[in-house]
Amino acid sequence: MFTGTAEELRARQTQARELAQEAAALLNQIDALGLGACAGEVTTPGGVIRSWPDEGWTVTDR
User: Fold this and answer.
1) What letters, b where the CB count within 10 A reaches 16 and e where it falls short, cover 27-47?
2) Do the Cβ atoms of 41 and 57 come closer than 8 Å?
């Protein structure tokens, strides 16, 4: 459980969101290889990484 300050929490949430966006970008690159699309969703502290038809992987709020 996080026990830091509110400012530290916001900074870590921002970092988690940025990392989730990087993960979504990697999943899009894997899909672009044309070997078959990845599917599903991954729940992270930075948001939910979801695969959307014709849109690729994106990060959304929970």
Assistant:
1) beeebeeeeeeeeeebebebb
2) no
Model pTM score: 0.86
pLDDT digits (tens, 9 = 90+) for 8-26: 999 999 999 999 999 999 9
Q: Which residue has the tokens 């044309």?
A: 34
Q: E strand or H helix at 56, and its extent?
A: strand 56-60
Share of the chain above pLDDT 70, in %: 100
∠ at Cα 19 (43, 16), nearest 5°? 65
